[in-house]
């Protein structure tokens, strides 16, 4: 069952900055700073207001964990996030390519089956014999 309201998911930007700050355990100014540095980029309303999704909240918590518990600086955290995003994109691409490959194999098998079905069945097998013939030219 989807825990989100109908028509939304974890990527839907719904939380204003004050609620996002409360949910993530950070100060609103910290969220603004992270946004300026490109660590967490929330959605925007038509008026320019920030709207955070549940995925953004989880990322804010991860940024705090890496900073506080692991001692990673913000530049390092940004690079970690970039690399994780790249890994996710590569995993998705591997899935796409695997599906394409499976489809290509299936198409090749169908083509081979069609060729085999097109063989003529009315050919008569010929018994093959081998014989050894020695040729001796006549002397003149």
Fold and architecture overview:
With 140 residues, the protein is mainly alpha-helical. Helices cover 55% and strands 3% of the residues. It is built from 4 helices and 2 strands, in the order ααββαα. It has helices at 17-24, 28-37, 54-68, 74-117; strands spanning 43-44, 50-51. Strands 1-2 form a two-stranded antiparallel sheet. β1 and β2 form a beta hairpin. α1 (17-24) packs across α2 and α1 packs across α3 (54-68). The protein is elongated. The mean pLDDT is 90.
Number of H/I helices: 4
* Total beta-strand segments: 2
Q: H/E element string?
A: HHEEHH
Helical amount: 55-70%
Quick structural gist:
This protein is mainly alpha-helical.
């Amino acid at each position: 069952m989807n825990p989100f309201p109908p028509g939304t998911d974890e990527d839907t930007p719904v939380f204003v900055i004050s609620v996002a700050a409360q949910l993530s355990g950070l100060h609103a100014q910290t969220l603004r700073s992270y946004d300026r540095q490109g660590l967490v980029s929330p959605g925007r309303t038509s008026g320019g207001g920030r709207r955070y999704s549940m995925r953004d909240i989880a990322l804010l918590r991860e940024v705090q964990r890496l900073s506080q518990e692991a001692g990673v600086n913000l530049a390092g955290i940004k690079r970690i996030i970039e690399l994780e995003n790249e890994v996710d994109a590569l995993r998705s691409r591997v899935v796409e390519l695997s599906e394409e490959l499976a489809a290509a194999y299936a198409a090749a098998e169908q083509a081979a089956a069609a060729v085999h079905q097109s063989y003529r069945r009315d050919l008569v097998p010929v018994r093959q014999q081998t014989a050894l013939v020695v040729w001796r030219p006549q002397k003149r």
